[in-house]
Amino acid sequence: MSNNQYFKGIDKIKFEGKASDNPLAFKYYNPDQLVAGKTMREHFKFAIAYWHSFCGQGADPFGAGTQNFPWDSNSDPLQAAKDKADAAFEFITKMGFDYFCFHDYDLIQEGNSLAESEKRLETITDYIKEKQKESGVKLLWGTANCFSNPRYMNGAATNPDFNVVAYAGAQVKLALDATMKLNGENYVFWGGREGYISLLNTDMGREQDHMARFLTMAKDYARAQGFKGTFFIEPKPMEPSKHQYDFDAATSIGFLHKYGLQDDFKLNIEVNHATLAQHTFEHELTVAANDNMLGSIDANRGDYQNGWDTDQFPNNVEETARAMMVFLKAGGLQGGGVNFDAKIRRNSTDLEDLFHAHIGGADTFARGLLVAEKVLNDNAFSSFIQNRYASFNDGKGSQFEQGKLTLQDLYAIASTNKSGINAISGKLELLENILNNHI
Ligand code: XUL
Ligand code: CO
Questions:
Q1: Which of 84, 241, 273, 399 is least crowded, fewest Cβ atoms below 10 Å from its Cβ?
Q2: What is the tens place of the pLDDT at every residue in 279-321?
Q3: pTM of this prediction exceeds 0.90
Q4: How far is the CA of 190 from the centre of ligand 1 (A)?
Q5: What residue segments make up the domains of the chain, in order of their start?
Q6: Mutational pocket test of ligand 1: of 189, 236, 239, 308, the residue with most ligand atoms within 8 Å of the beta carbon
Q7: CA torsion 43→48→52→58, rounded to 10°?
């Protein structure tokens, strides 16, 4: 077990500031810098996504993997898993991040039976627990991959065959066990196959009842084992399902309330899932925050010219600054952090590309946070929205908000209004200029 095996010649990434021309240094992410009362490290809780950074090899539907990384060479699944863990912990430590996130079978290849998979998970989590002790790296969340194996082609918790639902339950139990063993702070459900292709063969209502039952059982099991963390639902509208049940933040919140799960479950909002749902990232964050459901963030970005889940690393400062305004106003995340659910491009084949990607992502978030703080502290900006609703602050407007008016009252007010309705500018161009001036 060596701490300097895979990324030779790259030292710990440090903050050197904007003027630095060192490509292997942070320009904006300064972990100990205070912003709005907390350090950047505390605000973000940056996490590495085990699957993209250490399991993905650049394959796409048209071609095989291009990234032949050295931790992938061993044909023995256990040794391969240990090599991957060595690489992952070396990388996370060199990045100076505090967290990682995993799917069960990112850690080690799934076995040929449930019993074999369980044994493999036990062995690799023993190994990873040791690596956590040595490095101090923590687990932001764990999850189960209930979408890749062909057994889940018709869904996992929502599969029309109870035997598959039971198998998924067994898998989630083991993933929860692994998460708790590694002191995971949260647990995620992303329902990639929980949806349908056609209503010609699907009882949607029954499938959604099954999903709620399944989530309730998982929550009850973990709570009974003493798990104190938060469960997150990660909304996404489609891909791989044609229609995914957790379509977006609003849909997922409605679902959680319908089934009484809103206290244990919050949302994990992913940038590219928001854009796939034809929303903006800031929209999804706002929907979640308004309902006290903003739990965690999967950081990435989509492609502006197509609608796929391209999972590129974040680099859009304006998009991130707008999101960070929501983030700061909401008082941060409930239990979660910022997980880079992003992958380097297929033709980024150097080991150092992984560093450039994460450095850029962290700097983009740091920059976004700094901009957001300045914008929110700019009186010209912050007073604007307040003033825009001033007609509700007293008089009839205030009575309306308090539920003291009827529809007939509105009729009477409108009928006796002598001053008419005046155009009040929304001043959007001005606000856009203020935002840009702070970037
Ligand atoms: C898929 C996705 C997943 C979840 C975890 O689009 O985002 O990686 O984050 O299963
Ligand atoms: Co994600």
A1: 399
A2: 999 999 999 999 999 999 999 999 989 888 999 999 999 999 9
A3: yes
A4: 6
A5: 14-377, 380-438
A6: 236
A7: 100
